[in-house]
Amino acid sequence: MAGLLHLLSYQSSHGFLTIFRSTMANEDLISVDYEIFGRVQGVFFRKYTQAEGKKLGLVGWVQNTGAGTVQGQLQGPRSKVKEMQVWLKSTGSPKSNITKAEFKNEKTVNSLEHSTFNIVK
């Protein structure tokens, strides 16, 4: 569900100032760590994860591990992080085969600790 927009207008010394804000601005920001198991390396999983995270407006990172998994961190509005968790559990990249997704260390944060969604090499 896309966020609804509210239109706020008020008189300022320079005329009317119009502000759009998303109702999602009222949502908690959360951070969660993840690890994805299965056929997730060599199938562009990190690239697709980065693209999906950016599409949802999330920040964080993703990297391959020596154990053959992919791990990372997601941060953003609770509903968008939950949407990304579903994507990580069930979709991934076209050639991936996800067998398990683990999410841990979920916490509410006051501000985002990353400025974008990075692929860590």
TrEMBL record:
Catalysed reactions, semicolon-separated: an acyl phosphate + H2O = a carboxylate + phosphate + H(+)
Domain called Acylphosphatase-like: residue spans: 31-121
The enzyme's E.C. designation: 3.6.1.7
The protein, known as: Acylphosphatase
GO molecular function: acylphosphatase activity
Pfam family, one: Acylphosphatase
InterPro entries: Acylphosphatase, Acylphosphatase-like_dom, Acylphosphatase-like_dom_sf, Acylphosphatase_CS
UniProt-annotated catalytic positions: 46, 64
Xref: PANTHER family: ACYLPHOSPHATASE, ACYLPHOSPHATASE-1
Keywords, alphabetical: Hydrolase
Family: Belongs to the acylphosphatase family.
Source organism phylogeny: Eukaryota, Metazoa, Chordata, Craniata, Vertebrata
Keyword Lyase: no
